[in-house]
Amino acid sequence: MRTFSLFLLFIVFTTLSLPSCSSDSQKSGMQATKPAKQLDPYSAPLYKSQKRVQASDFNVKLINGQSFQLSKQKGKVVLINIWATWCAPCREETPELVDLYDKYEKDGLVILGVSIDKQGKSVVKPFMEKYDIDYPTVIDDGTIMDKYGPTMGIPTSYLINKQGELRYFAVGALTQKELEPRIQKMLTE
């Protein structure tokens, strides 16, 4: 029975053909039936929440030693991006996330990078330096994955509006072209 379940999971995952690095099940609380209109065919699709869902709060210690509490970000648009240094699609999307953060931080965009690397700072800090990541980043100790995981793959992203509600999620690498118009709209709401 377990072999059949694993085989079925493999078939479902491979037919989705998502550009991501791992497979598990998703339990974010988001309910979406179909992706939002895709703006970039090279991006993973963004799924829009079908009902208002408050994002689960958490408080974590960032790599730089500061604390980050999601509920204290109300009034800002927050993109939670779950990634790992060994994930090729994560490496592809990181420069575009850095560009978005640099462009919209002053307008109220917060990107929280959530590394799931088990090796910790020894691999994450060099990755951050290589890609000039200046947005808040945490190595998850399970705090965030307990609330937003396990994921179907990485990268996985959650876009949260100014009221602290989950608006979109995606499994796979997102492009700036896919994210930017939605971020711009959410920043003005």
Please write out the topology.
Blueprint: H1 2-16, E1 47-48, E2 59-61, E3 67-69, E4 77-83, H2 88-104, E5 109-115, H3 121-130, E6 137-139, H4 143-148, E7 156-160, E8 166-171, H5 176-188
Parallel strand pairs: 4-5, 5-6
Antiparallel strand pairs: 1-8, 2-3, 4-7, 7-8
Provide the helix percentage. 25-40%
Largest beta sheet: strand ordering: 1-8-7-4-5-6
Q: Give the uncertain stretches in residue-range form.
A: 1-19, 23-28
Find the count of extended strands (DSSP E, 2+ residues). 8
- Cα distance, first to last residue? 49 Å
Order of helices and strands: HEEEEHEHEHEEH
Our count of helices gives 5
Average pLDDT over all residues:
86
Strand content: 15-25%
Overall geometric form = globular
Computed CA radius of gyration, to the nearest angstrom: 16 Å
Content-based structural category: alpha/beta
Largest sheet: 6 strands, mixed
Verbal overview:
The N and C termini lie far apart (49 Å). Strands 1-8-7-4-5-6 form a six-stranded mixed sheet, with helices on one face. It has a two-stranded antiparallel ribbon with strand order 2-3. It is an alpha/beta fold. The chain is globular. It has five helices and eight strands; from the N terminus they run αββββαβαβαββα. 32% of the residues lie in helices and 19% in strands.
